[in-house]
Write a structure and sequence with these properties.
The protein has helices at residues 13-24, 38-48, 56-62, 72-82, 101-107, 139-150, 163-171, 173-190, 195-215, 220-227, 233-241, 244-268; strands at 4-9, 29-34, 51-52, 65-68, 91-94, 113-117, 127-133, 153-157. It has 269 residues and is of the alpha/beta class. The longest helix has 25 residues, at 244-268.
Amino acid sequence: MAENKLVFLGGGNMAAAIGRGLVAKHTPFDLGFYDIHQEKAEKLAAELHAKSFASLEEAVKAADMLLLAVKPQAMSGLLADVAGFIRPGQMVLTIAAGLPLAYYETKLPNVPLVRAMPNTSAQVLAAITGLMAGSLADEKHKKLAGQVFAAVGDTVWIEEKDIHALTAISGSGPAYFYYFTEALARAGEKLGLDAKTAAKLARQTAVGSGQMLAESQASPAELRVQVTSKGGTTAAALSAFGDALPNLVEMACMACAGRSAEMAEEMSD
C-alpha cells in the first residue's frame, strides 16, 4: 500500500517528468493529477496508472501531499482556491520559479512547505534539484521531499538566500553545456568536418564526459589533468582558453544570478 497520496496540481512537462521518475523508481507514493485542462491530467494519469481529478476540491481533499506545478503567474489564483480546501499540516511542494517561501506561507498558513528547483535534466532522471524548507517543514517533511525529487536525479538542501546562485549553476547550467557543445561542433566544421560528423563528435564527447563525471571518483580538475599531456594537443587547447573561459563562465553566472534576483523582485511587486 502506498504511504502517501501525492497529487500534482498542474500537468506540464516538469510534472510529467517527476511523475515518470516516481513510477520508474517504484517509490511509495500513490499519484494523482489535476489540471485546469482536464485532458492533460487524464493523459498523464492513464500513462502512469494514476488517478485524475475533475475538480480542484476533490484533488486537494484526496491528497496527503500536494505538488504545485503551475507557472508563477498562475500561482496566486491557484493558492486562493487551494486555501479553501487544504487541511492544516497538509504538506505542499512547489516547483514554481521566482516565488519565495514567504509568498506561500502568507497564503497557506499552518502548512509545511518545501520549495524545489529541479533542472530540465529531470526529463532523463538526471536532474539536480535544490530544496528549501519552509518554517513548518520538519525532518519528516524534508525526508518526503527528498524522496520525491530523488526520483529524477540528485538533491541538495540549501538556504533560500542562495537560490539565485543555484539558478546560475544548476538551473540554467544545462544550457551552458549545450551552448559549448554547439560551439565545439562549429569548430569542427571550421576544421573541415561535415556538419553531421562534427555534431556527432561534439555531442558524444559531451555525453561521455558527463558520464565520466558521474561515475568517476576523480574531481573535474583531476579528470582534466588525466587527458592533458605536457606539450600535447590538449595542453595547446587549454592554453588558448587561458583565463578567458573561467572568466566568461563567472561573468555569465553573475549575470544569471543578477537576473534571477531582478525577476524575483518583479514577481513580489
